[in-house]
Structures are given as structure tokens and as C-alpha cells.
Design goal:
With 386 residues, the chain is α/β, with parallel strands linked by helices. It contains ten helices and 18 strands. It is globular and about 65 Å long.
């Protein structure tokens, strides 16, 4: 086994097949004219109507691969079924990096990133009272009609629209969202501590569920997601083994603080055979490493939305009824379950905060692996220019 892995958060080459798939996907996402009018209204953005003379400060991605720029954007007109939020915090997610750096193609441009939004309702909707604190996750809209939506798998909806990708997100003073996809934030969490639960927590939780019922579970990449799911796993009586980039003493220390039985470099085998592994790092080379660490009949779950190419590996690593699978997005059921469970454990999120105007700095720190736990933007109280 190689003594080290490429832990870079980006890969410059996007597979052409993946690009073709996303091109077709974007066609369906953009062409909503065949849907009922009430449904098409859920896909609003800053550019689909605005309140005259009112602007909101936002950090905007105008071109992939370019730094975010601060802009005063027209305040979007509220559509039926939507809520307007005064954004208090927004988590900085690795998916934001993939969009920013061009690894996920065809975003809406210009775009306001951010899909771990914590805010208070200031207008609209019927599900939440004015002043209620709610969270907005990655999944922002689904068609409700396809075979995936009708079978409880809305996370796979071909027409799904995602916050901070197809819909403007939370790197702004205000955001609008379909109230059906918002969650009430549990008491006991500050705005900054709640934000990482909305994606890092949800994807980690879904990955843990799909991993089966492992006694010994390995977590490859100990960042925002892993530091949350480790606490859930430990609370369930599981033994957690944390794998980090070589020499990442800070992440290994955090893992031990949160109850991991072992923490070490991903380049070495764990001291015990694993029942399952979850790969959070976007590094394809970790797949054969995880398969090698997992027992016969165990599973390896790839939790990221993007990963560098997986190298070839001998069939014997998969043989023995090992299972290799991915996790795609989340469902509203995942959100409700985790947000009910988190305060019972209780899950404590470790966060490093950045002001809204330094969103690019937060992304840089995440890219460089300097974040211990999760990164969160602190958005100033809703200043609106007239």
C-alpha cells in the first residue's frame, strides 16, 4: 500500500461520462415548463423577480474557479409556499468547494453558495411562525411525481433542485426556501453549532444507516461529517476507528476526544478488522484501502458527492460478499430523524467561524485541511440597503 494518499480536496479532471450525465440532468432541472405552475414557482432564485429598490448583501460565485465577490443583490420576490429567512449562520461544506472549484459542473451562475443555513423566518409560509428558527438543507425541491419520489427515495429525484447549486443559498444576509424542505432547529444548539447538522450531520447519519449494523466502523477523513457521526456511533455502542491524512494530529486528537477507539493515518491498517467503513474524504485511493480493512460480508460506503478516480484493485478485495456503495443526497426523513436524535445524545459540534465577507477565506481553510471540525459563516444581522 502506498505510504500516503492524495488528500487534496479537488481533482481538476471531470470524467466526461459524469459531465454528460450532469448535462442531461441540468436540462431537466432547467426545463420546468412541463410542470404545474405551482410547482415551478418553487424553483425561484434571486433573478426570478425581486422587490424593487431593496438589496441584500451576498458573497457570489460568478464563475467557477474564481474567488467569490461581494455583491448587493436584489431581494428576491417570495413565491407561494416559500419562507424568507434572515440568515444567521451558514455552514461551509466540502460540496461548496466542489462547486466553487468546478468539480461539480453546470451550477446556476451567478450563484450564492451555501446549503447549511440557519435563519429566522421573517416572511411567508404557513408551516413556521414568524421568528421561528429553521434550517435549510441541500435538498431544496423535488418533483413528487417520479418513481423515486413515489417510493420514498426523493434524494434520487432526477428533477431535484439543490440549495446552493441550482437555488441560491446562505452565503447572504437573506435566503428564500420552500418551507416543505426546511427543518425546525432543536433547542440547545447555538446558530453556529446547528449549521453543520444540516448537511455534514445528515450525510453522515444516512451513511451510518446504510452501513448496516457494524460493531466496528471506520471513518476515513475526520472532518465535519465524521466528527458528528462518530458521536452517534459511539452513543450506539459501536467502536469507531478514525482515519486521517498522514500526520493530521489535530483531527486524530479530536477523534479520540469524541470517543474513537483508535485514530491514525489512512495509510496503515487498523488494529482490528472492521465491519464497515464510511469514506468521507474525496479520495478514490481510499476505496481499496477501506475494502482491505473490512471483513468478509462488510460494507464500504462512499459518502461524498464527488471523488477522484478510484484506482483498479484486485477482485479479492471485493470478494467475500463485501459491499461497495455510494450515498446520494438526503431525504427529509433523514433530517427529521437526526435532528430529533442529536439533542438526545447529545451531539456537540466543533466549529471554526468566519465572517460573511471572508467566505473565500473559509473555503481556503477547508481546502487546505486547516479546519478542526466544521467551518461556519457568521452572517451579520440582516442589513438591507434601500
Amino acid at each position: 500500500m502506498s505510504a500516503s494518499f492524495r488528500w487534496a480536496s479537488s481533482c481538476t479532471d471531470v470524467d466526461s461520462t459524469l459531465a454528460d450525465v450532469w448535462a442531461k440532468r441540468q436540462f431537466y432541472l432547467a426545463d420546468l415548463r412541463h410542470l404545474p405552475a405551482a410547482k415551478s414557482q418553487q424553483a425561484s432564485s434571486w433573478s426570478t423577480g425581486s422587490v424593487a429598490g431593496v438589496t441584500v448583501r451576498a458573497m457570489v460565485l460568478e464563475a467557477q474557479g474564481e474567488p467569490l465577490v461581494e455583491r448587493e443583490l436584489p431581494r428576491p420576490e417570495l413565491q407561494p409556499g416559500q419562507v424568507r429567512l434572515r440568515v444567521r449562520t451558514c455552514g461551509i461544506c466540502r460540496t461548496d468547494l466542489h462547486i466553487h472549484d468546478g468539480e461539480l459542473p453546470y451550477p446556476k451562475l451567478p450563484l450564492v453558495l451555501g446549503h447549511q443555513i440557519v435563519g429566522t423566518v421573517i416572511e411567508g409560509g404557513a408551516a413556521f411562525a414568524i421568528g421561528r428558527r429553521v434550517g435549510v438543507p441541500w435538498l431544496g425541491w423535488t418533483c413528487g411525481e417520479c418513481r423515486y419520489c413515489r417510493s420514498g427515495r426523493e434524494n434520487l429525484c432526477d428533477r431535484a433542485r439543490f440549495t446552493g447549486y441550482h437555488l441560491d443559498g446562505g452565503y447572504a444576509e437573506e435566503a428564500v426556501a420552500d418551507e416543505r424542505y426546511c427543518f425546525e432547529i432543536p433547542e440547545g444548539y447555538s446558530d453556529a453549532q446547528a449549521a453543520p447538522l444540516l448537511c455534514a450531520g445528515l450525510i453522515g447519519y444516512r451513511s451510518l444507516v446504510l452501513a448496516g449494523d457494524p460493531e466496528r466502523i471506520g471513518l476515513y477523513g475526520f472532518g465535519a461529517s465524521a466528527h458528528i457521526v462518530a458521536q452517534v456511533a459511539v452513543s450506539q455502542g459501536r467502536h469507531v476507528f478514525a482515519f486521517t491524512r498522514p500526520g493530521d494530529d489535530a483531527a486524530q486528537s479530536l477523534a479520540r476526544e469524541l470517543g474513537a477507539k483508535w485514530a491514525g493515518d489512512a495509510a496503515v491498517q487498523p488494529p482490528e478488522e472492521l465491519d464497515a467503513a464510511i469514506i468521507f474524504a474525496p479520495v478514490g485511493e481510499l476505496v481499496p484501502a477501506a475494502l482491505r480493512a473490512v471483513r468478509k460480508g462488510g460494507s464500504v460506503v462512499c459518502a461524498g458527492i464527488h471523488m477522484s478516480d478510484i484506482p483498479s484493485f484486485p477482485y479479492e478485495l471485493l470478494w467475500g460478499e463485501r459491499v461497495l456503495r455510494s450515498v446520494a443526497n438526503l431525504t427529509r426523513r433523514d433530517g427529521k430523524e437526526l435532528l430529533a436524535l442529536a439533542p438526545q445524545i447529545p451531539v456537540h459540534t466543533t466549529v471554526e467561524t468566519f465572517p460573511l465577507g471572508d467566505a473565500e477565506g473559509g473555503l481556503d481553510s477547508l481546502r487546505a485541511g486547516r479546519i478542526r471540525g466544521a467551518a461556519v459563516l457568521m452572517v451579520e444581522s440582516g442589513r438591507i440597503s434601500r
